[in-house]
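Posting this for the archive.
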Amino acid sequence: MAHLCPGRGHRVVSRTSSHTVQQGDIMQAKETLFADLVQGRAQQFQVPLYQRTYSWTERQLGQLWADILEQAELLESGDRASTHFLGSVVLAPSPQNEATFPRWLVVDGQQRLTTLSLALAAIRDHIADAQPDEAERIDEEYLINKRKNGTDHFRLLPTQADRPQFAALVRGPLEPQAGGGNVGMAYGFFRRKLVEASDPATPQDVFRIEQAITSRLTLVAVTAERGDNVHRIFESLNNTGLKLSQADLLRNYLFMRMPTRGEHVYEAYWLPLQNSLSNDELEQLMWLQLVLGGDDRVRRQDLYASQQQHFEQREITEAEIEAYIRDLHHRGALFRRLLHPEEEQDPAVRAQLRRLDTWQAQVTYPALMLLLDRRERGEADSSDIARAMSYIESFLVRRMICRVPTNNLNRIFQAVPGQLPLDVPVADGLHQLLSADNRFWPDDDELRGKIRSAPFYQYGRWHQRKTVLQRLEESYGHPEPVDFASAQLTIEHVLPQSAGDEWMRMLSEDAAVTETAEELHTRLRHTLGNLTLTAVNSELSNHPFERKQDLLKGSHLEMNRRIAATDRWGAQEILARANDLAERAIALWPAPLRGIGRAERSRDWQLAHQVLAALPQGTWTSYGDLAAFLGSGAQAVGNHLAATPGVANAYRVLTSEGKVSDGFRWTSPGEGGDVRPRLTADGIRFTVNGAADPAQRVTADDLALLLTGLDDTQADDEDTAQRTGQDQSEETRADRFFRQLAADDSPETVAAVRALLTRWEELGGWVGHGAGQAITSAFLMLGEAGAPGRGIWPLTLYPGGGRGGTAEVVFQHLAAREPFTDRRLRAELLLRLNELKGVDIPEGKLELRPSFRLSLLEENHNRELLTETLAWFRCCWGARDAA
């Protein structure tokens, strides 16, 4: 039964789908390709009214994109035969069918057809400036019926709710208001991915991507006859079912092939293996077995089919299957050392495995398994293996510090077993392999430069950043080293993230003529030279440096004592410390055998292109924000954008005041004139003095969120929200939150927040508090307390740290939590919040984490409106599993 939430009555329905059609419901089925399905004479595929609207999220889009890139790579390698099965499409003749213009109802498969059409529209627009003829070809072959008008003009006609957005995007990328909803989100996803695909580190030919979409993704087209019960077919397609895992399927297959030896093999090898690993771990081990055998392209989701194909290439005996399971059992003991480093006997290898485990470097498992396998066979000793693992650690750490994208790490490490040189010792071979130019292992010069300039705090995962700082602290060789396993250390900004007046006055002394104190603060605050580890964040807080000095002097960490020994903490001191840390990093993490030149600059600009392509509709950013995100300079950013044609959304980069730069000029053919009308068409508002609305500005921090998506910071948020109660002191986290809030906000605001949290608990929610000391937080949680990964929260409340408390709306987190993966629900949440007096969140912030002042809750009407919104949110979440 559908569940109606209060207020606007948005209906929330949850549905799962499997693609099994009962025999007798269909007349014919055949395997086909997207090109064969939609090309040829004019025709149309219509999505019926009873179908749900387009609902694919970035999770499904990301999986499809990975499949597309894999097929494009196979094409590049000369493989013309392989294809990837995408699923089924069930069609029935439309009541509007004509002999000269066939029309088909899409009974099932509209998500696939819509997604592929949007991907092709994105390719068309990606190449439109440089290759207009090819763009026109794509349009006419796959997207439109050239000589038809009205709705007949479109080869695919989505359901009514999606039709305006889809039609606007098919007509062209500059149609006003074309970017909203899930349809617009999917189109924007492919535009971003096409920009990423031109990255020099992993270049992809756009026409191979087109060919992969149209001619390498296979579909089973099931065609019903006129008179068949289409509704019955649709219902049978949407029955729920429990899907067996790849490990389950392969296990069943193996033991079905062993009629005489199966019982013995199961008792001797399989059962102990199954008891030592979870089902997911067992599946991962089976996949690694294929990779170690030389299959460097197999994916975990294709494990069963690949292994089955391997066994059925010839008649295989029971003894051979038993040997496979026995080998799997043996390698299971090696695999457990990756999962549980404490089971490794050699101290040097154990230390390396622990560091890689802390880094959460599962992507390196093929290489690590190979190393342990070589040692097990007597082809290397433990010292060789530890040295080889140090190269893997360095490869990961240097790339993270230098902001090299991680999107090709899977491919790099999966290829190691098949590419490792056999004529040199294993450690030397791995060093040589990872040093290849196309692996992008940063050299010493690049590492120095990035430690000085890149916003380290905004890249990688929180535990990776903490690990880097921990290793740097260990490099000082303190006579009484800290026990990092038990120490409650967090990352501290010495120059605070929110700097008070004293800090800004000091930065004014350091700022150059072309840079303000605010811009200098933005540029330096997240760099490695300004970060340290401490267990006394609450005492350090946002105090002036003199107060921090006294506290850091008593630290057990050598890096903190050295910071305390300086007279002040400004730009010069931060850069001097960055230089020292850079030399320590170079000594800790070995360099590649040969440098990669100055390729990092092209990667920096590629990162700029990617984040600009991801800029949401109705937002703008500044040269300074983009420069701070890149670790570059505002002037360099402006020069690059002025000289580089075809950069998506380059015209939405404005001055810090929200004005079009005096030096701005169009770089793409066919573009010109005043920028203002184009910005207005994109939904950007202008103030009375002609400046872009500052509420629609995407800051450097927001830019970092655009590319990380739902990353580890969200998981860290949830983890801290789950842990409640007291710390080592008697002060509870709730007490600390209200103490910090009262230090910065009025008693009326504190009382209003207390009242709001009480109402939230009355609605069935609970309040979790973050572990932060300097600035703590309060999470308005739903779900089981103490069950990480299952909770959801609409707001996080923060004390102000000198600037007034805020309520952060976590749209970015909600985008990965049902039912708010539906963008329309998130949009309704935004609409409801904007009814509060003083709140005006632009739609462009719907993928980010905007905030509003807690002082607004002092007004009773605002507090009541917010309570109603939270009740609606609670209701939507509670109805997520309604049938």
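The first strand starts at residue 3 and ends at 4. The chain has a mean pLDDT of 84.
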